[in-house]
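Thread: 3-isopropylmalic acid complex, take 2
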Amino acid sequence: MYKIAVIPGDGTGPEVVNEGLKVLEQAGKVFGFKYETKFFDFSGQRYLKTGKLVDDSDVEELKKYNAIYLGAVGDPEVKPGIIETGVLLKLRFALDQYINLRPVKLYNSAYCPLKDKQPEDIDFVVVRENSEGLYKGMGEFKDKGTKEEIAIQISYNTRKGVERCIRYAFECARKRNKKKKLTLCGKTNVLTYAWDLWQRTFNEVAKEYPDVTTDYAHVDATTMWFVKNPEWFDVIVTDNLFGDIITDLGAMIQGGMGIAAGGNINPQGVSMFEPIGGSAPKYTGKNVINPLAAICACGMMLENLGEEKAAKAIEQAVIGIVSKDLKSLAAGKMGYSTSQIGDLVVKNLKG
Ligand code: IPM
Ligand code: MN
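Output below.
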């Protein structure tokens, strides 16, 4: 019996989570696993009503679950940064979800903005460090509000934090068993402290993985290769901010935010799965948002729980409808409503 904590969140989060839960229910029936869900109302609206974000007792409660399924957080009525740091980053950090795993996979070349790229050309995974770097929130103002003001934002990188992320990425390259290639994406030419540590750690860990080919690309060049030669990549490992940036580009070349899913993973603890696109406030309540990213996130959650067959079946069902049914992956242009797409995935889920 899996215990799954559900955080529908803000904006279109609840709508897409609803579709993901439909698919989860069907997967449970077809593959014979049992689960229970409990809903948590962490969101911008709750913050506006009660002033509450995620506190330490919430974190302790969530530690009792096998996985967390998250819709989206972020509300235009709340000042930017409050919900992001108080809910999403709080959960990532407090649950030590030190990996942000973001597969970039093109399912149908018709949805790819790049010319002449086929599904086999765009099939890689970004392993984003998820607990340190510039996201650590370290820094200070000096002489705030004056003409002499200085704002300092620190990128915090520990040997332990970097090493556990790099190890995870090597394991991922080995297990994926595609090109068995791991690319370190950084900025060794300018950020000479942080990326010196990353590069040294990468080189040392690489010695333990002689079967994995290694490579290095600066982050700016990486964005260029994503557009020009995405087929070069298999697994990419990078820090928190670079990973944030390149995975939005990754989402675009795989067909957009409507299909991009990710997992915040603590290999020894509770992991959290989410569509990476955000709360899309302007589409809220219209039944037009694409729920496939949330459905794919549900698939990633099942894989993480050990229900590999169910995860594969969800991916196959998604591939099926993406290659023949949908007109587009973009909100409002899919030729189907949000709930109809959930129903289609349910119908196509085969044991
Ligand atoms: C993401 C998002 C978050 C991030 C925001 C909402 C804090 O952009 O998950 O990629 O920057 O990590
Ligand atoms: Mn992002």
